[in-house]
Amino acid sequence: MSAEAAKAESYDERYYRQTCGGSEFFDRYGGRVVKPALALALKRAQMKEGMTALDAGCGRGELLYQLEKRGIKAVGADFSPAALGLAAKTTKAPVMRADARRLPFVDALFDRIFFLGVVDHLPDADLESVLGEFRRVLKPGGLLLLSTCVNTDYHKRKTYALRRTLARALRLAVPAPLRSTEDEALHVNEHNESGLRLLFERNGWNARVEPRPNDKFAVAELYEPPLPPDFPLKPAKPWRRLLHAAFFRGPWKKYLARELFCVAAPQKR
């Protein structure tokens, strides 16, 4: 596609404190309790003390805080000065301004690379360069953990119009468009499940793409009780969890997923 990545100046401090996903968690907890996408990545990463990690597009630094707490030798990279300013206050892990297409690291340095909520902000040509750099700096047997901001089949293409029609017919609250004008300007390359799989295949990676439900259905999976009293995510009621489980399965999952999560490794050459 012919999209171009947004300039670094577009990602200012207001963006990270108000617009960027998880700002309500950051406002309450800093890095002590993280948003669902980060909590899921920490679980899937299966890291051990002493391992090395790169948070590419580290944003406010919440994931770095959690990695540091677990004894992981982590470093954060971002191209936004505003993000790095916030991250430096959130974590003691080193952070640096860097372009993910040309990473300033030696080969085979990291056991894990986290690329969370960033893939939708870059056009395909940039992503090809980024995945090439990730391949270079990953250790043999290392893993890339990646999440999208949205699943376009749910929010824009396959099921959005159907959900609006059903809501009107049943006189329920009509689902509003997910993204603001600002989000549309920054999310230049949003994905669905098949598109994300093809991105990895084209660039020589093996990837498991996991459709993810609305976060309110994953609270028990991602967070240990008790939840903080001001926890910003309200868990779904039991009857809604049962209804959701009946539909969120099989081939329907990729159309009903709010977001997509991937664990990927370079194919052997």
Topology readout:
Layout: H1 13-19, H2 23-29, H3 36-45, E1 52-56, H4 62-69, E2 73-78, H5 81-90, E3 95-97, E4 110-116, H6 124-137, E5 138-147, H7 152-155, H8 160-169, H9 181-186, H10 193-202, E6 205-212, H11 219-222, H12 238-247, H13 253-256, E7 259-266
Parallel strand pairs: 1-2, 1-4, 2-3, 4-5
Antiparallel strand pairs: 5-7, 6-7
Helix pairs in contact: 1-2
Concise synopsis of the structure shown:
39% of the residues lie in helices and 17% in strands.
Write the CATH architecture name. Answer: 3-Layer(aba) Sandwich
CATH superfamily assignment? Answer: Vaccinia Virus protein VP39
Shape: globular
Termini separation comes to 28 Å
What is the mean predicted local confidence, pLDDT? Answer: 90
Describe the structure.
This protein has 269 residues and is of the alpha/beta class. It has one domain (8-154, 178-266): Rossmann fold (3-Layer(aba) Sandwich). Helices cover 39% and strands 17% of the residues. It has helices spanning 13-19, 23-29, 36-45, 62-69, 81-90, 124-137, 152-155, 160-169, 181-186, 193-202, 219-222, 238-247, 253-256, and strands spanning 52-56, 73-78, 95-97, 110-116, 138-147, 205-212, 259-266. The chain has a seven-stranded mixed beta sheet with strand order 3-2-1-4-5-7-6, sandwiched between helices. Strand 4 (110-116), helix 6 and strand 5 (138-147) form a beta-alpha-beta unit. The longest helix is centred in the middle third of the chain and has 14 residues, at 124-137. The protein starts with 12 loop residues before the first helix and ends with a strand. The mean pLDDT is 90.
